[in-house]
Amino acid sequence: MAHGVARIPDFASQPGNPPLIANARKIETAMSATPLPPGHLHATARLRTVDLRGPAGRLEAVLNEGSANAPAAALVCHPHPLGGGTLHNKVVYHAMKALNAPDFGLQLPVLRFNFRGTGRSEGEHHGKAEAGDVTSAVDWLAREFNRPLLVLGFSFGAAMSLLACCGDSRVKALGALGLPTHADGRDYHYHFLEGCMTPKLFLNGDRDEYAPAADLEQVVAQAAEPRRLVFIPGADHFFSNQLSAMQAIVADWAKEHIA
To answer: How many helices (H) does the chain have, and how many strands (E)?
Structure first.
């Protein structure tokens, strides 16, 4: 596939409460109550809905507000909607906490949204045009905060974030969590990364069932500098039992790029 990724399967289904904006605080309270390793941290309680408009219509979105003097703002994008991915996905939620919770030392404002056709977002799932949804979210953050941006995505969200943001001067750095290279009998290629000069973090588990380590190493080797590949030992695609390790790496990455 010469220019991007289409319909990347992702099975990061997080069954539970429906992703309704009116119930966002209730949902996030429930998710933060999920059994986690000792010492896990809660994100700031300041949560507000956002009127986000994308190419296919209104996108359901929430902003975890940060410190008034935060040096940057951030976006975190969710995994494949056809696999149950929403803005309330556990990996997405914990990545947001690493950027927003006071105990991590950043307190950035962090935007999350549902891709077109997901939850209460308008439009229909496409598989590649969702990159335009990411661009709309970046546009909103740039207007709202007028400061450098960090963009993270998990699985399908990682692919769409890379596709949308490579070369965008507003984006200080990109983080790809669980970027898939093989799923559902298909291989996925990211040739556009050869010309992507934006700093890039690739963070996967070394037991990721949708991105064998050797395949991901090849993808990263073909990407333009600056780039960094980090494997979390023993972690699968969903960073099961390794969410704290993922958060620590994300927080350190963010600090490096907004220092």
So the answer is: 6, 10
